[in-house]
Amino acid sequence: MSAADELDGPFEKRFVALGDSFTEGVGDIDPSSPNAVRGWADRVAAQLIAEDPRWGYANLAIRGKKLPQALDEQIDAAVAMEPTLVTLYAGGNDILRPVVNVDGLMARYRHAVRQLVDTGAQVVLFTGFDSAKAPVFNLTRGRTAIYNEHVRKIADDLGCTLVDFWHMKKFQDWRYWDVDRMHLGISGHTAMAKEVLAVLGAKDDIPAPEIEDLPPQNLVERTAGNVTWTREHVLPWMKRRLTGTSSGDDLSPKYPKLTSRIW
Hints:
Pfam families: Lipase_GDSL_2 (PF13472). This protein is an alpha/beta fold.
């Protein structure tokens, strides 16, 4: 049997990534990857596998998922894989809705996290990003702060590992973000992968992202850029919300089964 024909698994260590576009990797464009994106979770998995081939990896996250959808569609599948490491971030799409019951959502979140903890896996949770300097999205900063307090309390109560995105102020530099200003770009996902590896206490051979200086802009240029951003990204996003559609409606998980073969 050739190396290419060898069985992929079973695995002694199993990393399952759950959530929405943040974990799917939107913004980290890579045509060779499933769904044409890579992302911080894939980068973390590649590092873990390179260091220890006993790791397998699954990524069930899909862009556009609200928290109840992500939990309903992904938790049972994750539990069935008997994970040893799970990452979970969901809720950002709910926070951006016109009306949201954050406390109610987080009651469901707590129950789901407990299910993951009961598998014996190390469970990694994320706070939401501080949008203080983000046009439009800064209006939801208060909701995110409430969400984060729930996440911190749940992590503390259930013994989870926390990646505190809110306090990573370097990500308020737009050079870490995609042109849509909603998702991390390649440099941002690379930096986040390094942050997650650090929290895990894992070896990190990922080169630090190169951040290029942006050309200076005058007021007219900044205004024109904001108009273009609104037309090309904000308005289509708002239309999807109004029509009840999602950018992930026709997508499947990138890695629905545990594998060590990630692109």
